[in-house]
Amino acid sequence: MRFSFFGGAQEVGRSSILLSDDRKIMLDFGIKVDHKTEFPTAIPSIDAAVISHAHLDHSGFAPALYNENSCPTFGTKPTLELSMLLIEDAMKIAKNEHSNIHYHKRQANIYNTKFVPLNFKQPMPFGNYDIELYDAGHICGSAVTLIERKKGKENKRVVYTGDFKLGKQFLHSGADIVKSDVLIIESTYESREHPDRHKLEEKFIDDIKATLDNGGTALIPVFAVGRSQEILAMLYKHRLTPISYVDGMARAATTIVSKNSKFIKNGDILSKAIMETVWVDDYHVRKEALEEPSVILTTAGMLNGGPVLNYITKLNKYSKILLTGYQAEGTNGRQILENGHITVKNSKIKINNEVEQYDFSAHASDSDLYEYVRSSAPNHVICVHGDREHTMHFAETLNGEGFDAYAPAVGDTIEIPG
Ligand SMILES: [Zn+2]
Ligand SMILES: [Zn+2]
Hints:
alpha/beta; Metallo-beta-lactamase, Chain A; Rossmann fold; 2 domains; 7-stranded mixed beta sheet; 12 helices; globular; binds zinc ion
């Protein structure tokens, strides 16, 4: 059994791992959206693909598989719908910026038709294998993938976690831990813990209420898929939805999530939240949103484009910007935290409003990562989706605990006997 890494190894972004055994199965095929977009290092010929979840670092290059290949892609229904939303948006952005995304609409359409939606815990026979998905607790439809070799050679269970979280979120109960012989696990937050979710939520809501009481707007930049729905449900719980506005791709993503309620918990709360909030669909509503103290939930989460840029320069002095996640280097989100400005169309704009960052991460914490490995009880562990330092440290620690652990780099191949 061989594993080859075309991306997402000793890095976060463009996850793509090829399992070569009797069949060739691609686990994720994403892009890395940074200063410039990076792609998996090759487009191999394969027999099937599995997409763990919709985020572009896992799904963004899937259409490129459909040039010569004509194979099934497995994943959940929300993964298909949300990834199509993000892929279509990425194609639009690439077109506007005259950059190349290296696939065409025709291929995105084939990806759409070749996709085989699976429910959790419903094994799908494929050659000598069963492919089975479990809840990863990360975003709507996110899956832990089990590929179990049942026929031919010795029985073997390969588990790929994708992005996961063991801790509870408002809409997710936490990942299923699946027993494995070979475990491929994300490492994003290795060596780091997230703050207590309950206390964080309290502080966040207090901050919003104080801003509103002062006569300001609480501007909340969010990632369209995952974070927007979590925050929206949270706002409902604290009775803030009647004065909340939702703008940008967060609207379309929230609609898809709410239609796939069997893949989330508290789906009823999300539907009620949608009913109460104002959906911004034109310039007038955007203007109205800023006239009275209100909460505005809008993309992009790292302030790199999207309607958030329409609001951020028009806030009154009592308003506050509440960032809800990690801000990558070089993004406006990182700049505003470090030196209080953003860059739009090559010109620097000073932002005088207060800014606060909240860690509502949907990823496993350090203790989640080790708990997953110990309970999944594999012989071999492959640490991916983390920077070099953290994947190496993770693998070293696991080797010390008696696991056979690796932290491959892009371009590496790992051969596992049996
Ligand atoms: Zn993700
Ligand atoms: Zn990811």
